[in-house]
Amino acid sequence: MNSAWVPPPQPNDFVFDVESESEIAVVLKKYPTERKASAVMPLLYIAQKQMGRRTGSAWIPLQAMNEIAKRLEMAPIRVYEVASFYTMFNKRPIGRYHLQVCTTTPCWLRGSDEVVSTCKHETGINHFGETSADGLFTLTEVECLGACANAPILQVDDDFYEDMDADSVQKLIAELRSGKKPTPGPRVDRLNSAPEGGRKTLLTVATPSDK
Amino acid sequence: MVRVIVDGTTIEVPSGSSVLQACEAAGKEIPRFCYHERLSVAGNCRMCLVQIARAPKLVASCGFPVSEGMEVFTDTEVVRRARRSVMEFLLINHPLDCPICDQGGECDLQDQAYGYGAGISRYREEKRAVTDKNLGPLIKTVMTRCIQCTRCVRFCTEVAGTPDLGLVSRGENAEITTYVEKTLTSELSGNLIDVCPVGALTAKPIAFRARAWEYKKTDSIDVMDALGTNIQIHARAGEVMRIVPRVNDSVNEEWLSDKGRFSFDGLKKKRLDHPWVRVHDSLIPVPWKDAFIALACRLKDTSADKVGAIAGDLCDVECLCALKDLFTAFGSSNFDCRQDGAWYDTRSRSGYLFNSGITGIDQADALLLVGSMPRHEAPVLNARIRRRFLELGRGKFPVGVIGDLAADLTYAADVIGTGPDVLERLLEGKHPFAEVLKKAHNPMIIVGHSALVRSDAPRIYSLCKQLAESCGALTPEWRALNVLHTAASRVGGLDIGFLPGERGLSTKAMLRGGVDILWLLGADDLPIDVIPEETFVVYQGHHGDRAAHRANIILPAAAYTEKSGTYVNMAGHVQRAFRAVFAPGEAREDWRIIRAFSEVIGYTLPYDTLEQIRDRMAEVNPVFAIDGKKGSSNLSQHSVTSVIDESMTLLDEPFQPIIQDYYLTNSISRASQIMAECSAVYRLRAME
Questions:
Q1: Which of A37, A60, B8, B89 is deepest in the core (most CB within 10 A)?
Q2: Residue B643 pLDDT greater than 70, yes or no
Q3: Cβ(B267)–Cβ(B549) under 8 Å?
Q4: Most A CBs within 10 Å: which of B126, B153, B180, B181, as the mutation test of the A interface?
């Protein structure tokens, strides 16, 4: 069950790049100087994004946590506590695309098992938490993503792909593999969480005389 | 004050108190795990639930403030049922290994399970298991027992000031760990054992040795530093098993340094357990009588002014008093309690004390450290400075350091210079920190031994004094020109007047051949090599340490756990220690050895009992007139020049730290295996 967390091999160093620096400057402006520790979560996220951008694997190495601790004048363990608490921060390297399947009740009722098995089949991953042999995909089981009306959901990195089934998962993974970035949103014919095939109710404009 | 009704009794508590404090004031015991009165409130164990009239549900009393007229119920059926449920949840993942747990018998969880435990478990699922952590040579971890109260995390962060520990991960996977498997870096880490309410953090050196109820407990005083930490020695079968702190708010609160807690194993190693006399270059064991006669013959052939004594850092006042009386009786005034050759302004007691008192730190709002590294010289005192620093908030407690900052002080400090020349600039107002001190209401200046052991110490002290006078650290209401001592015996020695008399020789002169017979009373930390070969060295002490190897006669003495003694801490508190165990073999209490020897050479000292020698101490200096004794002042004149030569020039060199290795500073800690391990581990860590 619970085991000591062994840190994965770490990169030699971590330096925020120009893009990250400008984002950090924006974040730090939101907090008073003596409360800048509040910026720890945005900074962790910026570090993770930079790793994704630079190395193709969006995770947070220890050097990045140390760097954040130094910038925010907090103890490294405090940064580590925050990073380890939130599942959205990856503490070990992941694949190029992070497939996050919601398996909470609504998604499960609407067929998340199918989404999971297709993901596994298409990427060759056997268990949650693993990365595919080609290093492209990491499959993670997540709890409710808050988009139950469009269940089941497959979240890839920051984007929601909704109303998934085996075919659409297959297609999505193929597109990702070919380097394309499919448009997020429902995979069926509907706008956001509006009914499939267009509006079903309130088709006519009600006027007082209808009564 | 706020009026609160606890279980029908009305009491008054200060506003801002928590409900738990109010209940305690009313004499109601509230069970708790995460709450600790000297740490911040976490409120995560939920064991301290109480019922409050008109409150919709039970509240955690530790974090709930009292209000006027509040009615609290601590022992209703609802409360009991809630606490039983909390206990059931805590026990779900707590192993049933009390029989092999070192905390057994003094475990909060065990005790409270007697009150609120269900007796049976309804939990049929798998319990969680957590990997043990390596926190260094002092703390043993059994992390499966951890109930995540986070007391240890808060202790490290708040009191010790070394935020190494944290609660990482979440939910079932939550665990206490260091930032990726590192050892702790604090000199106060032993307190984690006391702070932990369960057996997750226990003492590694004494694992599986004894049970809490088997100990004979004796109150004593720690001699590893000059703070005079109040300790309790736990012994079993005549052996010191462990040392724990006692609560004394004006000295150590409830903390104890690692050296004080864990160097006790040095008391069982390298001990001198019978007298030795050197014959033809080899030491041979002899009976007490022969050792005394050999020494007496030698003394008779030597003129009184060629006999000298140097006292070490661990002596009690009794033996200092006896040895001084003996030397005075046969006409020598060559005795010195300053084995490091430090200089003090001995004109009045305030010249060498931590004048503001240890609690004075709680009022200070600016601090200047002159040649002192309190983290190594008095870790518990350093924790107090840190608390004040936290209390006032960032930037409100400026700390200036003159000297080499060997390690992080655990609070923000600016190194404003490395040598004494900065003091002159401060005094002239040419340094920005002078302004800081002037602006402060209660500035404090701490002068350490890095400054006082130098040859220009009188001038440095004088500059500090002038600075204190000019910045308001030395007013009739606020006396905060403090000397931070490192030797437990030093203030006692100065108080009893164990200083060279008129025409008497000081440590340096005695060591360099000024005397023919040199009596080292537990003095090991001096340059033994400079003693000329022809000097006859008598070593009275408890360890076969540096000085014993050079000695011509060894008189085995009792260590601090083995004698009743009086110690004066750096703030001038006279404190009594009691005997916990007997000294090994033929070793005897120091003052008794001196008293017995005085009879052999025909200068019988006029005291036979501990009471009588303490009466004599009170007669010499009224500060020792405690426990209803009558005091008078008969302090002899001494030759130590306290008159400060203002023309003395300052040396142009930086202050050198006086403690090279915190874990190895005296004969006991040098004999300790545990301290040696610590030293090795932390030296490695320091190099990283």
A1: A60
A2: no
A3: no
A4: B180
Convert the pLDDT of each residue in B432-450 to its tens digit. Answer: 999 999 999 999 999 999 9
- Whether residues B375 and B437 share a domain: the answer is yes
Asked if B127 and B118 count as a contact pair (C-beta separation under 8 A), the reply is: no
Length of chain A: 211
Would B683 be classed as within a structural domain?
no
Together in a domain, A126 and A152: yes
In-domain check, residue B658: no
**B499 and B619: one domain?**
yes
Chain B CB contacts of A7 below 8 Å:
180
**Does B615 share its domain with B501?**
yes
Boundary (domain end) residue, out of A59, A85, A111? A85
Beta bridge partners of B60: B49
The residues on B that touch A, with CB distances below 8 Å, are 126, 128-131, 133, 157, 163-170, 172-173, 175, 177-181, 394
B239 token code pair: 């052996």
Q: Distance between CA B498 and CA B323 in Å, rounded?
A: 9
Looking at the domain assignment, is residue B559 inside a domain?
Answer: yes
Cβ-based contacts of A85 with chain B (< 8 Å): 168-170
Residue A3's pLDDT is: 46
Written as one letter, the residue type at B426 is L
β-partners of residue B13 are: B2
Whether residues B165 and A5 touch (CB distance < 8 A) is answered with: no
**Cβ distance B352 to B494 under 8 Å?**
yes
At B647 the pLDDT is 74
* Candidates B163, B170, B394; nearest CB to A77: B163
| Residue that finishes a domain, picked among B593, B624, B655 | B624
What CATH code is carried by the domain that includes residue A27? 1.10.10
Provide the residue range defining the domain that includes A52. Answer: 18-85
Q: Tell whether A113 and A73 lie within a shared domain.
A: no
**Domain count of the fold of chain B:** 4
Residues A29, A67, single domain; the answer is: yes
Residue B645 located in a structural domain: no
Asked if B330 and B367 sit in the same domain, the reply is no
CA nearest to B75, candidates B88, B61, B94, B54: B61
Q: What is the pLDDT of residues A7-40, one digit of tens each?
A: 788 888 899 999 999 999 999 999 999 899 999 9
- Between the CA atoms of B95, B99, B101 and B105, what dihedral angle is there, to the nearest 10 degrees? 110
CATH code of the domain covering residue B192: 3.30.70.20
Chain segment B64-112, per-residue pLDDT in tens? 999 999 999 999 999 999 999 999 999 999 999 999 999 999 999 999 9
Look at residues B630, B317, B627 and name the one whose alpha carbon lies nearest to residue B497.
B317
Token pair in block for residue B69: 């007229």
Between CA A99 and CA A140 the distance in angstroms is 6
Domains of chain A: total: 2
- Closest by CA to B487, choosing from B454, B516, B526, is B526
Q: What is the pLDDT of residues B296-316, one digit of tens each?
A: 999 999 999 999 999 999 999
pLDDT of residue A1: 36
Domain of residue B603, residue span? 276-344+489-624
Residue B454: HSE in the Cβ half-sphere, 13 Å Cα cutoff: 26
